[in-house]
Amino acid sequence: MSFINLPLTEFTEILASKAAVPGGGGASALVGAIGTALGNMVGSLTVGKKKYADVEADILALQAKATALQKELLYLVDQDAVVFEPLSRAYGIPKDDPTREAVMEDALKLACSVPMDIMRACAGAIDVIEEFAAKGSALALSDAGVGAAFTGAALKGASLNVFINTKSMADRDYASALEKEADALLAKYTAKSDAIYASVVAKLR
Length: 205
What we know:
Structural class: mainly alpha
CATH architecture: Up-down Bundle
Strand content: under 5%
Largest sheet: none
Number of domains: 1
Shape: elongated
Order of helices and strands: HHHHHH
CATH class: Mainly Alpha
Number of helices: 6
C-alpha cells in the first residue's frame, strides 16, 4: 500500500489509528518533505526577479537539490512502512522459538535503516534551506523559517525511531555506530535549523 498517494485526510486518519504503519518514521519523512518544499518555494519566488539576478544560478542549483530531497523523503514515507513490517511480525514470534532472537535482530537493523536515511535527507535539506534563507527573496523569508523548523522537527522525529530500535539490539557495536551517527546529525543540524529559525525571526520582528 502506498500511503503517500492517499488523500491527506485518509493518511491522517490511518496515522491516528492503531495500525502499525504509518508511524513516527513515515510522519517524520512527510514533515521533512513539506519543510523541504517550503524552502524550494523560496527559490521559486526568487528566480526571475531582477533584484536577485546575481544569485539566480545559485538558487536554481539549490532548487535541483531541494527537489531531489523532496522526492527522496516522500519515497521514504512508504519505505519506512516497508522496513517496519518485518519487525512488527518478529514481535509476534513466541519467546521460546529458537529463531526469534536472530529474526528480531535482523528486523531491528532493517527498521533502523530508513529512519537513518530520513535523518540524512533532513540534514541535507537544512543545509539547502540555510542558503535559501540567506540568498532568496525577502518576501518568502518566513517560508524558509517554517521549512527550517519542519526539517529540524523531522530530523528529531526520525532519530527517535532509530533509538527505540538500537536500544533492543544485541549487536551493541552496530547499535553504537548508528547512535553515534544519529547523535552527530542531531548535534549539528538541530543547532543549524534553530539558528535559521532564529535568524528569520530576528529579521521579521
